Structure formats: C-alpha cells, structure tokens
C-alpha cells in the first residue's frame, strides 16, 4: 500500500518523498517514483509528514522507536490501529486514514477519522483520490468497504470477465469490457443524482436482456453474500484493533 501511495504522489508531483523499507528489493522497485530510498528508519526525523505503511502489529513498537516530534505529522494507514493508540505512542499530530490501492492511479477512496485532517494532509489526500471523514468508531466498517473493497470488486470483475470468456470473447477483450464496465458504472453512480435502483431500471429495457440477468441476481441474493464479505472484513478489523490494544 505504501508503494501505491508513493506512485500516486509521484504522478501528481509537488512532493519530495523518501521511501524507507527494510528490504532493498522493495526499495529498488519504488526508487523510480521517489526522491530518495533508505533502509534507515531514522530518516523519519527529517520529514514533515511520516506515512506509516507497516503491518498493524508492527506499528506500536516502531512508532515508539521513531520518536517523532510535535512539529511533525504522522499519517497512519494501518487497519485496526486506533487514533488513541497512535497518540499514546507519539508526540506528532496523528491523522488516521484507511486508504485503498487505487491511490496508485489517483483514484483512491479513503476514510479519515473526522476532525483530525489538517490542510497539509488534505492536500496530500486530494492528490491521490477522494476521502470522506467518519467517526473513529466507523473506521472498521470503512476498512471493509473501501480498504478491502478493491479485492471484492476485482473478484466481481473477474467473474464477469470469465463469463465473457466462457461465451467466446478473448480473455483480453473480456477483461477490458468487464473492467471498463465497472469503471463506467462507478462513474455513473458518482456523477448522477439518480438512485441506484433508478439506474438499474434505466439499463433494463422492457422485455430486454438485462432484466433476465437481474432476475437471476435478485433470486440468488448476491447482495447478501457481498454483505457477508464486508461484515467478515469488518470483524477482522475489530480483531486487529483488539490485538493492537493488547500489545
Ligand atoms: N494492501 C492494501 O490494499 C491496504 C493496506 N493497508 C494497510 O497498510 C499497511 C501495510 O499493508 P500492506 O502494504 O498490504 O503490507 P506489506 O507487508 O505489503 O507492506 C509492508 C512493508 O513494510 C516493510 N517493513 C516491515 N518492517 C519494517 C521496518 N521495520 N521498517 C521499514 N519497513 C518495514 C515490509 O517488509 P517485509 O515484507 O520484508 O516485512 C513490507 O515491505 C497495513 O497496516 C494495512 O492495514 C491499508 C489499506 C489498504
Ligand atoms: O487486508 C488488509 O488487512 C488490508 C487493510 C485493508 C486492505 N488491506
């Protein structure tokens, strides 16, 4: 996720970025997109904004080691690590966000703990996508919807593409048609002020093809299955929060 963030920022320009990772091989893949790479964690002391893109169970210990100061901002993207816990480990101003992988292409959907975002962080987030502010208690469900969400959508795009291949399309054409259809449908939802039910209705020509497919979806209750996937991810985010608090 840290790499996606760096690539997105690079695309937008305007930021001087130093990437730090323990693994030289990871740094090599990211070096074309940042100003400097290093394995030395101490570099964090030189940065106005430190983005912590570590696995949740490492965040507490590493944050204590970093010894950030009050004139720095910490941007944490770790699932399940609360603002309260972060603030107990650092002097820096804390902003907790849940981003997603589409930051790489400037299309991130992120949730940010409300009332924590500063102008400086707003500009960084605007450079890689869109964000909404939610209360801290809603970060677990946001993690499931927009953090894990891309994987769920990739799965659905693949299902649609596979069906196209089964029907005789080439894998390349099926992938393009399925992905562009998801992108176009998403853009339509974002730009239109019509309800989603209304938009479905607009695609369903009377006695046409779409209503036949929608009847299958409504009968098989895909909506409930997607709901269960989101609930499972939300539950795991809560477990990660508990693990982080217990450490
Ligand atoms: N993947 C995603 O789509 C999203 C992830 N997140 C959050 O982002 C965070 C990272 O997740 P993800 O990118 O998937 O995980 P990764 O394991 O892919 O990335 C973490 C990176 O940090 C490196 N690392 C480990 N220890 C250190 C250290 N001491 N100093 C510097 N670098 C270190 C890891 O190296 P090594 O592999 O050698 O341990 C690895 O390259 C998590 O907290 C997750 O909750 C949030 C939203 C979306
Ligand atoms: O799977 C995870 O735990 C991380 C957080 C959200 C997306 N990826």
From TrEMBL:
Single Gene Ontology MF annotation: pyrroline-5-carboxylate reductase activity
Domain spans labelled Pyrroline-5-carboxylate reductase dimerisation: 136-240
SUPFAM superfamilies, A to Z: 6-phosphogluconate dehydrogenase C-terminal domain-like, NAD(P)-binding Rossmann-fold domains
InterPro entries in the record: 6-PGluconate_DH-like_C_sf, NAD(P)-bd_dom_sf, P5C_Rdtase_cat_N, P5CR_dimer, Pyrroline-COOH_reductase
UniProt binding sites for NADP(+): 53-56
Group of enzyme by EC: oxidoreductase
Domain Pyrroline-5-carboxylate reductase catalytic N-terminal positions: 1-80
Subcellular location: Cytoplasm
Pathway where this protein functions: Amino-acid biosynthesis; L-proline biosynthesis; L-proline from L-glutamate 5-semialdehyde: step 1/1
GO cellular component: cytoplasm
Keyword Transmembrane: no
GO BP terms in the entry: L-proline biosynthetic process
EC numbers for this chain: 1.5.1.2
Keywords, in A-Z order: Amino-acid biosynthesis, Cytoplasm, NADP, Oxidoreductase, Proline biosynthesis
Reaction(s) the record says it catalyses: L-proline + NADP(+) = (S)-1-pyrroline-5-carboxylate + NADPH + 2 H(+); L-proline + NAD(+) = (S)-1-pyrroline-5-carboxylate + NADH + 2 H(+)
Family, similarity comment: Belongs to the pyrroline-5-carboxylate reductase family.
Function description: Catalyzes the reduction of 1-pyrroline-5-carboxylate (PCA) to L-proline.
Protein name: Pyrroline-5-carboxylate reductase
Species per Swiss-Prot/TrEMBL record: Halohasta litchfieldiae
Gene behind the chain: proC
């Amino acid at each position: 996720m840290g790499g996606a963030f760096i690539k997105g920022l690079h695309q937008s320009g305007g930021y001087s970025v130093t990437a730090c990772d323990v693994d030289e091989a990871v740094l090599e893949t990211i070096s074309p997109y940042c100003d400097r790479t290093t394995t030395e964690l101490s570099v964090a002391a030189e940065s106005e904004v430190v983005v912590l893109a570590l696995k949740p169970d490492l965040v507490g210990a590493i944050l204590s080691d970093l010894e950030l100061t009050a004139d720095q901002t910490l941007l944490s993207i770790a699932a399940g690590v609360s603002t309260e816990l972060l603030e107990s480990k650092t002097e820096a101003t804390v902003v907790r966000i849940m981003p997603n992988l589409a930051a790489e292409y400037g299309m991130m959907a992120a949730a940010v703990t409300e009332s924590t975002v500063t102008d400086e962080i707003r500009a960084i987030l605007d450079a890689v996508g869109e964000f909404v502010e939610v209360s801290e208690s809603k970060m677990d469900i946001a993690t499931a919807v927009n953090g894990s969400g891309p994987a769920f959508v990739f799965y659905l795009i693949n299902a649609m593409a596979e069906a196209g291949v089964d029907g005789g399309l080439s894998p390349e054409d099926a992938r393009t048609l399925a992905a562009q259809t998801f992108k176009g449908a998403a853009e339509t939802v974002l730009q239109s002020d019509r309800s989603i039910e209304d938009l479905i209705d607009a695609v369903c020509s009377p006695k046409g093809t779409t209503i036949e497919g929608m009847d299958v979806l409504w009968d098989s209750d895909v909506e409930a299955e997607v709901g269960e996937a989101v609930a499972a991810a939300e539950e795991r985010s809560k477990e990660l929060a508990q693990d982080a608090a217990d450490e």
